[in-house]
């Protein structure tokens, strides 16, 4: 059997999925979309949709950890989300603080590293304080790394990285001719982490929305019409099943 075929998962006649545990994506990134539509379909306020979205985070983190995923990056608030009505922005910030306070013990007990990416200095102080404290208290854990992308934008991240590189050159720490992919990666918020193998976007939209622009060069994309609050463990398995049945050639030939 060709080596790459061994990395595939299979599906039984009854439709059940058998994942290949030797080929679980190391890093999964998720654009948690569709909370608002989920709420609208139920005649509920949008914030209830976001609350329901937090429940999904809880379930999906557990499942990713169980499957052996090493990094999960969740797009929770983009640099563009400030354009939303003030009430919604404030409700999202409250939800974040509530989530970190309520879930901390459980996540810590499960050995999760609670990390953040994005410019959190622009978030309300109650959020940045809680995020920094959660990171400080979990940074030595050895389990799954959960990156909460907050006030995150792929373009802002690249701009920040370019500025840091320019400063390093100015300070004589780096030569222009030494700039390569590794140097750029090490100036991104995801420094030291593998690029995402799989990017998942529920809710039917098929765009990147300024997410992990540098890191997604060879990521596999998976889309579905399910809104994030309804995204289940079985949907996660379907996404990984598809991932395991694709040929990742990274520009080469199999
Ligand atoms: C996109 O759905 C979702 C967001 C912009 C926020 C995601 C936030 C959470 C799931 C909860 C808060 C996060 C944490 C980490 C506690 P949308 O509102 O754009 O949905 P729509 O496109 O259907 O309107």
UniProtKB/TrEMBL annotation:
Superkingdom: Bacteria
Residues that, per the record, bind substrate: 34-38, 46, 50, 78-80, 82, 84, 201, 207-209
EC number(s) given by UniProt: 2.5.1.-
GO MF: ditrans,polycis-undecaprenyl-diphosphate synthase [(2E,6E)-farnesyl-diphosphate specific] activity; magnesium ion binding; manganese ion binding
Cofactor: Mg(2+)
Keywords: Magnesium, Metal-binding, Transferase
Cofactor note: Binds 2 magnesium ions per subunit.
GO CC aspect terms: cytosol
Gene3D superfamilies: Decaprenyl diphosphate synthase-like
GO BP term, pick one: polyprenol biosynthetic process
InterPro entries in UniProt: UPP_synth-like, UPP_synth-like_CS, UPP_synth-like_sf
Pfam families recorded: Prenyltransf
Catalytic residues (UniProt): 33, 81
Binding site for Mg(2+): 33, 220
The protein's assembly and partners: Homodimer.
Family to which this protein belongs: Belongs to the UPP synthase family.
Record's function text: Catalyzes the condensation of isopentenyl diphosphate (IPP) with allylic pyrophosphates generating different type of terpenoids.
Protein name, as recorded: Isoprenyl transferase
Organism per entry: Clostridium folliculivorans
Phylogenetic placement of the source organism: Bacteria, Bacillati, Bacillota, Clostridia, Eubacteriales
Gene: uppS_2
């Amino acid at each position: 059997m060709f080596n790459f075929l061994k990395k595939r998962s299979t599906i039984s006649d009854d439709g059940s999925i058998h994942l290949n545990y030797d080929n679980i994506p190391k890093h999964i990134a998720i654009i948690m979309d569709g909370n608002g539509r989920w709420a609208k379909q139920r005649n509920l306020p949008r914030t209830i949709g976001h609350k329901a979205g937090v429940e999904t985070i809880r379930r999906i983190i557990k499942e990713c950890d169980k499957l052996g995923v090493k990094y999960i990056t969740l797009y929770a608030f983009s640099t563009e989300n400030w354009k939303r009505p003030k009430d919604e922005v404030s409700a999202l910030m409250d939800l974040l603080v509530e989530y970190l306070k309520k879930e901390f013990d459980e996540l810590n007990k499960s050995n999760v590293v609670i990390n953040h990416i994005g410019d959190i200095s622009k978030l309300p102080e109650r959020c940045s304080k809680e995020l920094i404290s959660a990171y400080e208290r979990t940074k030595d854990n050895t389990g799954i790394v959960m990156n909460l992308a907050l006030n995150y934008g792929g373009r802002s991240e690249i701009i920040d990285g370019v500025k840091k590189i320019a400063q390093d050159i100015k300070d004589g720490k780096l030569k222009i001719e030494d700039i390569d992919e590794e140097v750029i990666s090490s100036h991104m918020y995801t420094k030291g982490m593998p690029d995402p193998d799989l990017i998942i976007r529920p809710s039917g939209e098929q765009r990147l929305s300024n997410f992990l622009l540098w890191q997604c060069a060879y990521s596999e994309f998976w889309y579905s019409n399910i809104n994030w609050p309804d995204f289940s463990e079985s949907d996660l398995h379907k996404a990984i099943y598809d991932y395991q049945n694709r040929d990742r050639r990274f520009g080469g030939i199999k």
